[in-house]
Amino acid sequence: MALVHNIENGEARISEAMPGDYFALLKPRVMSLVVFTAFVGMILAPGGINPLIAAIAILAIAVGAGASGALNMWYDADIDAVMTRTAKRPIPSGRVTRGEALAFGLTLSVLSVLTLGTLTNWIAGGLLAFTIFFYAVIYTMWLKRSTPQNIVIGGAAGAFPPMIGWAAASGTISLESVVLFLIIFLWTPPHFWALALFKLRDYDMANVPMLPNVAGERHTKLQILAYSLVLAVVAAAPWPMGLAGPVYGLIAIGLGANFVRHAISVWRMEDGDATMVPAKKLFRFSLYYLATLFAVLLGERLFEIAHSAQVA
Questions:
Q1: Does the domain spanning 16-172 belong to CATH 3.30.450.20?
Q2: Where in the chain are the domains?
Q3: Which of 58, 99, 145, 250 has its CA 20 to 30 A from that of 206?
Q4: What family is this (predicted)?
Q5: 199-228 pLDDT, tens per residue?
Q6: Is residue 221 exposed (0-12), middle (13-18) or buried (19+ Cβ within 10 Å)?
Q7: Torsions phi, psi of 142, nearest 5?
Q8: What is the rounded CA–CA span in Å between residue 59 and residue 119?
Q9: Which pTM value belongs to this model?
């Protein structure tokens, strides 16, 4: 037990938070995706980067992502308490206070931005600072509770990491890094709306205006299909752009076709379907889809680097 005195509602108390509770505030599963996509962006960027600097930069990006998660949990503690998916998080379960989460998130935000900007460049540092601000303020404090398009606009926060990694290595923002951004940006709505379809009651209870709650299931399913079609096209773009090779291109096309197939199944699903099986399948596949795309991008580039080293 951490013996740290805090003031909560005007009364002194001793924190019962364990190290694992603070780690949970970082949203480690989300953070792992951020780290991976940022690393891919860093490896794909031209010019290269010192391995030690790269490792510290990735750590700084990870900490920045975790800081965003902590600030999100601080502000959304009331929502988290009524949703089954989030009720066991550190704040609603009473293991961490909102004040502790806020201080933790702000401290990590400052440290991560200063570290990344100082060690790499301030384009990368500025992008990380903007990402934290966008997620914590624009998405969490404003969009999430005010518009059913919250996840569309707010999804930009999760799409910035490959751009940050690219900027850390190259000091630039290029068309290629924007395409990496767009892949995640376009993937986010069908991924989260599929979740929202089978977690509809949770969002109703929390009074969060997710698209299915506001516009209905039919409109949501149509939007999922539309975004999936655009995503399938954009995700294949790194191949003709020269950012990726034919292996990636063929895999991206195959995965994109499968993503659209799942989206069509969701579109055909009866409104009010209690099982929501197609939506659950799309949600699970979407996780595999994004991870595979970036894994293939990384694998191709590492193979290219290894081959060039052998030739040299």
A1: no
A2: 16-172, 174-306
A3: 99
A4: Belongs to the UbiA prenyltransferase family. Protoheme IX farnesyltransferase subfamily.
A5: 877 777 777 888 888 889 999 999 999 999
A6: buried
A7: -115, -65
A8: 12
A9: 0.90
Q: What's the token pair of residue 23?
A: 């780690």
Q: To 5 degrees, how large is the angle CA 232–CA 201–CA 152?
A: 35
pLDDT tens-digit series, residues 11-44: 445 556 788 889 999 998 888 999 999 999 999 9
225 touches 193 (CB < 8 A): no
Q: Tokens in use for 36?
A: 């991976």
- CA dihedral 27→169→191→105, nearest 10 degrees, is 20
Give the model confidence (pLDDT) of 46-70 as tens digits: 988 899 999 999 999 999 999 999 9
Return the sign of the alpha-carbon dihedral for residues 269, 290, 186, 31.
positive
| Structure confidence at residue 232 as a pLDDT band (50, 70, 90) | very high
Q: What integer is the mean pLDDT of 159-177?
A: 96
Structure tokens that stand for 189 in this block: 């709505």
SS3 155: coil
Dist CA 210 CA 192 (whole Å): 9
| Cβ neighbours, 10 Å, residue 262 | 23
The structure tokens listed for 155 are: 């999804």
What does the block give as tokens for 61? Answer: 């990006």
SS3 category, 50: coil
Element (H, E) at 7: strand 5-8
Closest to 82 (Cα-Cα) out of 197, 213, 204: 204
Which H helix or E strand runs over 11? Answer: strand 11-14
